[in-house]
Amino acid sequence: MKALLIIDIQNDYFERGMMPLSNSEEAAMNAKKLLTDFRQKELPIIIVQHIASRPESGFFLPNTYGAEIHESVKPLNTEKIVVKHFPNSFRETDLDSYLNKSGIKDLVICGMMTHMCIDATTRAAKDLGYDCTIIGDACATRDLEIFGKKTDAKDVQNSFLSALNYFYAKVTTTEQYLNDNLLKPEV
Length: 187
Hints:
Strand order of the largest sheet: 3-2-1-4-5-8
Number of helices: 5
Order of helices and strands: EHEEHEHEEEHEH
Radius of gyration: 15 Å
Number of strands: 8
Largest sheet: 6 strands, parallel
Helix content: 25-40%
Distance between the termini: 5 Å
Shape: globular
């Protein structure tokens, strides 16, 4: 069985948030399309919410608007919510045990930030034996800097998705994923 894993699509990653990302609106709208598809097919959905455990992080602070799940992917009461405090959604959470108890072996992953939580969670999932598909245009990241040199968000996005593609995950787009799964029976 497969499940949709939506990671950290929270208010702080959008305009006027504490850590706005490049293309967060577009990524969220694509995640919403996936969410709608999974709901229509009555497939499992897991929403991951990061809550900062360190106040100096400056975003996703407990009990703030910024830490709330974005309106585009608000969970229903029947959908699983996993609260995490680390980039890896499996670390010190019940995600692995929930997936095992539910018989879920295939994960369709989207969310934020590609270079951090999407990367960490996907690698951990593969190491735990899950088959992963990342929906690249339903993920967002930001500009990064090292040694005084800036790397544009589009290059960060492309680099991380390229690194994950093949061994750790199949990387695709929202349109391609939805088209490929339009007529397939879901299991």
